[in-house]
Amino acid sequence: MTPHAAGPPPLTEEQYWRDYEIIRNDVNAAIVSCYTHRAINHVAAEEPKIGQRLNRHPDFWRVTSFSLQNSLFIVLARILDSDPKLHSIYQVLNATTAHPEFFSKAALRARKLSVPGTGPNPTWLDEYIQNAWEPNVQDLRALKKALSPHKMKFDDIYKPIRNQIAHIIFKDDQSIASPYSRALKADIDEILRFLHSLVRAIWEIAYNAAKPELSGDNYGFAARVAEITNETQELLRELPMRSFRARARL
After folding, report:
1. DSSP 220
2. Closest by alpha carbon to 148, among 156, 139, 137?
3. What string of H, E and C letters represents the secondary structure of 203-239?
4. What residue spans define the domains of the chain?
5. Helix 185-208 and helix 89-98, axial crossing angle in degrees, nearest 10
6. Within 13 Å, how many C-alpha atoms sit on residue 240's CB side?
7. Residues 103, 140 contacting (CB under 8 angstroms)
């Protein structure tokens, strides 16, 4: 009997990009949860009129804030779960390394030709493909290696917070506060920035033959955070404010 070959099961490119989109959406969900939560708290603290509006429905805003914070840690834990049986960023990165052909010059040519309005053999394409960067397996493995310090920090400091969430109603105030004592906004910012850069870098490798740049803000993370913050602030400032006299008549 012939033994089964080692390695991941066969994967089509269509399946790869479907799995990629799931993780991309999860990363976006974590970013939206984090910075919507922060924007609500910041505006409520800094703008007394908005704080008064929110306090008209305190339970709603308390649950909203709690849900956003919990969603952040739950989604991050799912993204960064290295269990091979679960769908996470690791499953996508392992598939990326196992299928370098998805990032070959031939695959790049096919993607460029699939753009609507592109002719069957545009004059610019041959030179573009010839000069394009084509990653090797080591280049693709470097993506997973770059994730390692962020994974370690999350598991050490932030995964216990996620685990606490499921049992919080059985805990006293001191045990609830303990997991948060080492938490820093800057850590979460950096983990989210890196994940945003990582998923964007994979897309840029495949569609533009661009070498990944995972340090710094090379993929518009700050602009995305500003967009979420501004949208949240705009929504809160547009909330209707009844006068105390009008409320007294109801």
Report:
1. S
2. 156
3. HHHHHHCCCCCCCCCCCCHHHHHHHHHHHHHHHHHCC
4. 15-243
5. 30
6. 4
7. yes
Place of tokens 């049986």: 85
- Side chain identity at 201, as an amino acid letter? A
Please spell the DSSP secondary structure of 101-153, one letter per residue. GGGSHHHHHHHHHTSTT--SS-TTHHHHHHHS----HHHHHHHHHHHHHHHHH
Tokens 């305190």 correspond to 58
Q: What is the pLDDT of residues 137-179, one digit of tens each?
A: 999 999 999 999 999 999 887 777 766 654 444 444 444 455 5
Give me the pLDDT at residue 2, please. Answer: 52
Give the model's pLDDT for residue 121: 82
The letter for the amino acid at 238 is E
Residues of the chain by 3-state class (helix, strand, coil), percent to 5: 70, 0, 30
Q: pLDDT tens digits, residue range 168-193?
A: 444 444 444 555 566 678 899 999 99
- Do 165 and 75 meet the contact criterion of CB atoms below 8 Å apart? no
Residue 202 has pLDDT above 80, yes or no: yes
CA distance 40 to 54: 9
Nearest Cα residue to 131 out of 208, 219, 203, 200: 208
DSSP 29-77: HHHHHHHHHHHHHHHHHH-HHHHHHHHTSHHHHHHHHHHHHHHHHHHHH
Prediction pTM value: 0.85
Question: CB of 95 within 8 A of CB of 11?
Answer: yes
- Residue 250 confidence (pLDDT) above 50: no
| Block residue for tokens 């998805």 | 102
